[in-house]
Each structure stands twice: as structure tokens, then as C-alpha cells.
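B., you asked whether I could sanity-check this one before it goes into the benchmark set. Here's the sequence:
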Amino acid sequence: MSRAAALVSVLEACDSLAIVCHDNPDPDTLASALALQEIATSSEADVSNIAITYGGSISHQQNRAFVNLLDIDVEPIGAVPVDTFDCIAFVDHSKQGVNTSLTTELEPSIVVDHHPGPPVDAAFADVRTDYGATVTIFVEYLQELELAIPSRLATALLFALHRERLDYLREPTIREYEAALAVYRDANLETLERLYGSAFSPGTIDAIGRAIVNRKQRGSSMIASVGRTTETDALPQAAEYLLNVEGVDTVLAYGIIDGTIRLSARSLDPRVNVGQLLGTAFGDLGSVGGHNDMAGGRLELGLFGDDVGDDDEALLSLVDTRVRQRFFDALNLDGASST
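And here's what the prediction gave me:
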């Protein structure tokens, strides 16, 4: 039995399905959710009740445009009674309590992901860490099941493939190019153009501006604080922007969001695995992880702020010092010159 057929076999036993995206969902998890919904509503599976849900917020301007232009029916996790659904599916993440706001008491029966992590115990689990995107797996499912791919779904899949891997050449595999070719014919190119033209919010521009001003560099590595912000997706955008600085190949952007220190790292250096790097630097302080070229995490602010009370300026200074020191120490750059 193929993996696609095995997925359908599990879906056949579900009268209702809650598809859970990871927190602060990006196009890879959202397009994967749409693809799973398409498979679940097909005549092969025929699931009658499906909800797509997420934790955190959709703040990145392209992600907001992605949801609006493609008319994706996705609801905050607090608005969906996930515990009443027969089946729960995780797409683009695999563990309760890790990059998801869903309670750890609820276990998924379906998991499709491409991120590394501990073994997954589910009725259907397909975690392929040698793939560059979760949507690549879903394109293969759709092809194996010989399902027609509607234009809206093809557009979502193609945009997700580009944003996850192909736009920045973040170590895509040949499978990402093959998947893009498979859905290109049915994608709406006008909608794709509008997605790429979506505007930055003022808050995102402000956060990226603070990262530029606050950047510190040692060797070819850079760290930058966006300070306090409500724009979660400003962090990866700041990290990606700063990778354009001459001589820089590894960047960590961080900031304080809703009482939590959020991290986003990017690297073009094949010798650096930023998922492991963040684990070495901050693994004892919170939840971190990712790939060799892109990673993220969150740290509890209280672990840094006990010494400064209500002095916000002192708190930010303390966080900056400790996060920067841990990052450069993990890179063995403690003695390198800093700019």
C-alpha cells in the first residue's frame, strides 16, 4: 500500500477532521492543510466535517494575503472545539506542545511533516526530513491518488513551494522542482503576482529597521534585536534581509513578543546547522529547533528578567547581552571582533 493510500485508509474512519497548522502559520502549513482537506473530501475518503485551525497569529503580510486571496477558511484554535473531532491531523509539525498551541492532551491521528524531531506515534505518520517542504509530500499524494488539483489549491501549493525553498534556494531538493512543475499548469499566475506584491505593514518595517540599527557582527555571523514588537513574522523577514549584508552568512533575529523572546535564524553556510546551533545556545531555556538553514524558537522572558524588575530599558539591555553572548558562544566566536 502506498503512503497516499494508507492516508486515505485512516481518513475513511473519520467522520470529522480537525487539521491543525503550526502556530503563526506560513504558506507551507496552510497549503498542506488545503491539500489534506482536498484529499479528505474526495470520494476516496469522504470526510463530511473538516476544520482548519491554528495558534498564534497570521501577521506576515504575505501570509495574510495568502489567506484572503485564496479564501482559506481557517480559524484560531480557541474558536474550534478540536476535542470533539474524530480525527486530528498535524501538518508541517509533528508534536504536541512544540510550535503549536493545541493542548498536549490531544494526540494527532495523522501527521505529515518534513521537520526533524523525535519519533511520532500516530495512526498515520509520514515525516520525511530529506524533503524541502511538506507541500511536496502532498503533491505526491495528490498524484498517487490521481486527484485533479483545483486552480486555487495549485496556486497555494506553488506559492508555498517557492516561499519555503525555491525563492531563496534554501537547499531545495529535486522533488521541490518536480512538485512545482506538476502544479504550475493549473496555478493562477495573476494571483501569484498579487501575493508577491503584498505590502509590508508599518509595524514590520519598524521592526526590520530596529534590527538593522541594532545588528552586531562577529566574523560572518550576525545577531539583531527588533526590540518589542507585535509582528511575529518580522523576525524571519529581518533575518533574511540581513543575510544580504556583505560577508554575512548566518543571522539570528530576535525580539520580545507578548512576554516571550522569539528567535528566528537563517544561514547560508553549509558548515552551520542553525537548528542545532539554537539548541546548543538556548535549548536549556525554551523550545527551539529547525533545519540546517532555518530555525526558530521561543524563550520565557522571566528567565532573563528577574534581575531588573519593572525597568523595561534595563530588561531589554539584559536580554540583548545574554542572547548575544549565548549565540556567539555557541558559534565559538567569543573572541572574534564585534561590529
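One thing to flag: The mean pLDDT is 89. Otherwise nothing jumped out at me.
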